[in-house]
Amino acid sequence: MRGFELRANWLGFDAIAGVDEAGRGPLAGPVVAAAVIFPSGYTNGEIRDSKKLTPLKRETLYKIIRDDAISVGLSAIEASTIDRINILQATLAAMKTAVLSLSPQPDYILIDGTNNIDIPILQETIIRGDSLSVSIAAASIIAKVSRDQLMDRYHVLYPQYNFLKNKGYGTKEHREAVKKYGRCKIHRRSFKIK
């Protein structure tokens, strides 16, 4: 999980940020991006793709990452903006803001997926990067836990959709609630609900 970071170090880069997002697919709520810079040579065998971890393990690692990282950046783009600019552009905008909020700024960026960020910093995209890079995996955990916390707060405002359980994803229960109650303020109108 450290290969991409080690190679970047070998090439002379010091502040390497991993970047990932959570929430591209849900019917409701924001897309959240995170960026994480670890100290050079950092390792933690428990950090992996957030989707492969239990909620409790993600919460535990979230705290560890926050403590161990040099810097953590976070950004959320709400449903209304997703509807206006589309989910890909919203994701890239969230990633850019997350990177720009890092201090110090990175000199190299590792990004999960295939799309570069519009920012003048050398960057590398990695398909399944959250399974191949410790800093991207850490960013995936920060983004997922942060988004889940937001959705838990939205559940208090809109309990009829059970965001506490589905986090805005299109479960059968969630789709049936939309049929019964209509869409609320945080639903993505540009996303079709079957």
Question: What's the quick description here?
Answer:
The protein is an alpha/beta fold. The chain has helices at 3-10, 55-68, 79-85, 87-100, 134-157, 163-166, 172-181, and strands spanning 16-22, 31-37, 71-77, 108-112, 123-126. It has a 5-stranded mixed beta sheet with strand order 3-2-1-4-5.
Give a topology summary.
Blueprint: H1 3-10, E1 16-22, E2 31-37, H2 55-68, E3 71-77, H3 79-85, H4 87-100, E4 108-112, E5 123-126, H5 134-157, H6 163-166, H7 172-181
Parallel strand pairs: 1-4, 4-5
Antiparallel strand pairs: 1-2, 2-3
* Largest sheet properties: 5 strands, mixed
Helix content: 40-55%
Evaluate the radius of gyration. Answer: 17 Å
Number of helical regions: 7
Got a strand count? Answer: 5
Terminus-to-terminus distance: 38 Å
> How many structural domains in the coordinates?
1
Strand coverage percent: 15-25%
In CATH, the topology is named: Nucleotidyltransferase, domain 5
Low-confidence regions: none
Q: Based on helices, strands and strand pairing, what is the structural class? A: alpha/beta
CATH secondary-structure class:
Alpha Beta
Can you say what the CATH homologous superfamily is? Ribonuclease H-like superfamily/Ribonuclease H
Q: What overall form do the CA principal axes indicate?
A: globular
CATH architecture: 2-Layer Sandwich
> Strand sequence of the main sheet, in spatial order?
3-2-1-4-5
